[in-house]
UniProtKB/TrEMBL annotation:
Regions that span the bilayer: 5-26, 32-49, 70-90, 110-135, 147-167, 187-204, 224-244, 250-272, 284-302, 314-333, 340-362, 382-401
Highest taxon of the lineage: Bacteria
Protein name per the record: Na+/H+ antiporter NhaD/arsenite permease-like protein
UniProt source species: Bradyrhizobium elkanii
Keyword line: Membrane, Transmembrane, Transmembrane helix
Keyword Transmembrane: yes
Keyword DNA repair: no
InterPro entries, per database record: NhaD-like (IPR045016)
Length: 407
């Protein structure tokens, strides 16, 4: 019989995972190698000593565990890779080059761009919204984007999806589980307050670092075929998400529906314009990195959370900055007793505090490798942590904590 190892009462699984995250923070030029090494160590420990909780011990336990997780991992893989191609289509459409003519010429231009990302994320996947924001920023700021502003783009995409059941995987999970979309939409109270807190300082940071381009290049020709391709891909993702949740919810547990819909749209529209496949190798590295962390997190022995309370919900936001928010949300749904608007905000926005805390952060960091530094992300993106806390307590003061009975 396998016996888990405890170090001063802490399961060794958690220590290995914490060391992996510490390694990512310190060796930010070698994040993929660190993540894969950490995952290998955790898998080896599980095989030899601890087993895979409810899935059993040894290789059969590992196989059952991966059978349970593969849909989530496949969806993340397909979405990150697919939306990287979408981002290139959007960039090559020349719309980002036109944006300086549409945005204000001072720091308010950066602020308006963050608001656009926030709004887009309410009905698009937050990965797509963040990549669109990152693409526009590269053009309107002459390729010099402050890391604090990159963090703000990620935060805006996560905040925008926090109150929408089609804007974030965690809120979609709540919808599937029977929680009313009207309950989740309360998260926008905290999300909007958080936006007000972090968006202005981040925009001022960016304006001092590299002001917005004042005028669009003359004689621009928008490639409307690429604009149509971007619209088709986003519409495919949105339609697949809504249709599967309303009509075929069981299908979401057996197939990566969203990812397959995105790639079907990419391949169908390739007859109009060839995707820029050159972005795939670098995107693959970032995607495999995230999948390694998500897989490692899924193996942690988190069988239950502390008793449901607003304090627990607040803490889960900080935990989700380093721990995959999908299993956290699944555990909270199983436990019950949460005010789901608060939980949606916490696990949705909390991941913005670290660059690998959300899939949107990883996607943007694939575009801007200089953002893969935990220290620089936290020190230059400090308004996000403050915004998370302020948004949470304003929501608590205005709405109060009203937990739902377990369902």
């Amino acid at each position: 019989m396998l016996t888990p190892i405890l170090v001063y009462g802490i399961p060794l699984d958690f220590i290995l995972f914490a060391l992996t995250l510490l390694g990512v923070a310190i060796f930010h030029h070698h994040t993929l190698a660190v993540a894969l090494t950490g995952l290998a160590a955790i898998v080896a420990y599980k095989l030899l000593f601890a087993g895979f909780a409810k899935f059993g011990a040894g290789l059969p336990g590992l196989a059952h565990h991966m059978e349970h997780e593969w849909v989530t991992l496949a969806n993340l893989f397909l979405l990150l890779m697919g939306f990287a191609l979408l981002s290139r289509h959007f960039e090559e459409s020349r719309i980002p080059d036109e944006m300086p003519a549409l945005l204000p010429d001072d720091w308010k231009g950066g602020l308006i761009l963050l608001v656009i990302v926030f709004v887009l994320s309410g009905f698009l996947d937050n990965i797509a919204a963040a990549l669109i924001g990152g693409t526009v920023a590269r053009h309107v700021f002459r390729g010099r984007v402050h890391i604090g502003y990159l963090a703000a783009i990620v935060a805006a995409s996560n905040a925008g999806g926090a109150g929408s059941v089609v804007g974030d995987t965690t809120t979609t999970m709540m919808w599937i589980d029977g929680i009313s979309p009207l309950t989740v939409v309360e998260a926008y109270v905290a999300a909007i307050v958080a936006m007000l807190v972090f968006a202005v300082p981040a925009s001022l940071q960016q304006h001092r670092f590299s002001p917005i381009v004042k005028d669009a290049p003359s004689g621009l020709r928008i490639d409307w075929a690429r604009v149509a391709i971007v619209a088709v891909i986003l519409l495919a993702a949105l339609t697949a998400n809504v249709t599967a949740n309303l009509k075929f919810p069981a299908l979401l547990d057996t197939l990566p529906v969203l990812g397959l819909a995105v790639w079907a749209a990419i391949l169908v529209t390739s007859v109009l314009r060839r995707p820029d496949w050159s972005v795939m190798p670098e995107t693959l590295k970032g995607t495999v990195f995230l999948l390694a962390l998500v897989t490692a997190a899924s193996m942690m022995p988190v069988e239950k959370l502390p008793a449901a309370s607003w304090q627990t919900a607040l803490g889960l936001g900080f935990v989700s900055a380093v721990f995959d928010n999908i299993p956290l949300t699944a555990l909270a749904l199983k436990q019950g007793g949460y005010d789901w608007g608060f939980l949606a905000y916490a696990v949705g926005f909390g991941g913005s505090m670290v660059w690998f805390g959300s899939s949107a952060g990883v996607a943007v960091s694939n575009m801007y490798p200089e953002a893969k530094s935990v220290v620089r992300w936290i020190t230059q993106g400090w308004p996000i942590m403050a915004a998370y806390v302020v948004g949470f307590f304003v929501m608590l003061a205005l709405l109060g904590w009203h937990p739902d009975a377990p369902h």
